[in-house]
Amino acid sequence: ISVIGAIKHAGAANNIKPVLHWINSEDVEKQGVKILKKFAGIIVPQGWGSRGAEGKIATIKYCRENQVPYFGLCFGMQMAVIEFARNALGLKGANSEEVDPKTAYPVIHIMPGQKELIAKKQYGGTIRLGGWPCKIVPGTHLASAYLKYGKKGIVSERHRHRYEFNNEYREQYEKAGLKVAGTSPDGKIVEAVEITKHPFFIGTQFHPEYISRPLDPHPLFVEFIGVISKFKN
Description:
Layout: H1 2-13, H2 25-31, E1 42-44, H3 53-66, E2 70-73, H4 75-87, E3 95-96, E4 106-110, H5 114-119, E5 128-136, H6 141-147, E6 154-161, E7 163-165, H7 170-176, E8 179-183, E9 190-194, E10 201-204, H8 219-231
Parallel strand pairs: 1-2, 2-10, 3-4
Antiparallel strand pairs: 4-7, 5-6, 5-8, 8-9, 9-10
């Protein structure tokens, strides 16, 4: 419901009414990306586990290669990192430890400190939860979107996750064109990634939809809908 609300808020800010369609990612696995061709922009929202993951990855590949505006939220960012690893970096079988604990290329891995909690089955309230600061990288599409709303430097965003971008691969990603656009203030946690030359290809580890309001739409959703409105035909 928060994602739907954020889209509507952003639509009002752009003076347009978005038409929403929900797609089961398992249908993409069965029917292929041809079922995506009528859409002007695509969001892969939060999620978990292996079910439908390959359909999400195929969807992201379609968006990346065909210049379709893409917005990945939390798990949607992680799936974008996996897609890029497989198809741009050539890391065959790259995955998240959440989906495949035995992957040879764990480009998304469990956060330090979380492994012990899971081993003890301490699930409730132990994830990285609530508001955390994000340092925006200047010169990125992310920075431009926030700046339009007078936000720069460090912003506060809401989180809910145990897994994160694996910094061991960070240099490879940056060299190949998937830029780190936001980090924790100490630079250790990747909070957002993007392909800057793409019309809109942004993934956030945080949940911008959680803080969007009718009279205060989130800048990233406003930018996403704004880009779509330019390419909607």
